[in-house]
Structure formats: C-alpha cells, structure tokens
Amino acid sequence: MSLDFPTSEFLVFVAIGFLAQIVDGALGMAFGVLTTTSLLTVGVPPAAASAMTHVTECFTTAASGLSHVYHRNVDWRLVVRLAPAGMLGGAIGAYALSNIDGKAIEPFVSAYLIAVGLFILYKAFRPKWPRDVHDWIVPYVGGAGGLLDAMGGGGWGPIVTSSLLGRGHDPKKVIGSTNLTEFTVTTVISATFIAALGWSELSSAIGLILGGVLAAPFGALIVKRLPVKPLMIAVSMIIIGTAAVRFA
User: Fold this and answer.
1) Does residue 25 contact residue 64 with C-beta atoms inside 8 Å?
2) N or C end of the chain: which has fewer CB within 10 A?
C-alpha cells in the first residue's frame, strides 16, 4: 500500500484539513468524519485514512484545545473522566482496524459514516430540552467515542459532544472539553497506527496537519458567532453524500 500522491495534491490535503478544522472548531465535532470521507473519496484505504486523520488531529486538537483553554471553555473534571476511557477505546479500535483488510472493511466504514451524518442531522433538528446532568455515564461515552472514532476514522465529536449536550452539560464547556480531551485520545490512536503501519504510509498527513493547524485558532471564536443549526445540516449532508457514493 503506497500513499505517494503527486505534489499537486498537497494543496488538496491542506484545504481538507483547513475546512474540516473550521467546522470542528465551530461544532465541537466533524473533523474526523469530514477528513476521512474526503480521503476515502480521493482513494486512500480505510486504515490509512483513519491513521492520517488521527496523526493530523494530534496537532489540530492540541492547537484547538489550547485555544479553548485560553477562552476558558474547559471543564477539567470532565476532561479527567473522559480521557482514560477514550484512550483505551481508541487503542483497541486502532489495533483492530490495522489488522483488517481495507477492501473488506470499506463498506462498513462508509455505512458508519452515513450513520454519523444522519445522527448529526438528527441533532440539528432535535428540540433541546433542559436535562439534569448525570456524570456516571461520562467514562462510558468516552470509551465508546474512542473505539468508534478509531474504527471509523471519526466520530469522537458526534458521539461524545452530542451525548454530553443531551445530558445537560454546558455547551461551551462540552465543546472546549471534548476538543482538549481529543488530543490525548487521538495521540494514543495515532501511536497505535504508526506502530502497526509505519510512518512512511502516513507522510501525506503533513498537508492535513498544515491546513488544520492554520484553522484551529479560529475555532474558539467561531463557536461564539456562527449559527449552529445550518452548519450542522450542511456538514451532515456532506458526510452522507460522500460516504454514500463510496458505499454504492
């Protein structure tokens, strides 16, 4: 398996990373699924697409997380409860995906991404009833988010952010905390992928990293200004459309 893309495609990777991180900074979700569906569309195998996405997220989540810390959008108790379970789930998912044939798993990855897109669309229209916060579920949400994020190349935000918002946590704290926690989770996932695949398979992630890091500082500002519902609808349509083409 080789990922020796022409130099002209470097800017495509930069654009993918930049646009995905802008959306992720605004919603607290969708970098992974947008990036993975885009990479699958240009012919990257599922395991390599997920690996490239997570290597990139080591940098983008660090920049985004620090930005949210600066703007005081982080609940540190939430971070401490999410991180260990998310890291464990992510390591298991990355190891499993690295040992599965890409062609065999690709339809399942596409189906998963379509499901995530539909879930985001559902969350866009779902009434936001106020609820009590029940912190007992936080580690379980983190574990499931890490596992599915590694296996599908994305999903930490849609699963963790949406679940915690549904439990009644403060939206700004949830977005900031999940962005910061994602750094620890994606670092473990990336290390697992690198151990299994090697860095030479992932060198094209440099373009994604550049685009994502350039966009990351804007995320904490955008979350305060952009209308969330139209953006969620647009993101869900992009994810469903691109994944459905490959699933077909």
Assistant:
1) yes
2) C
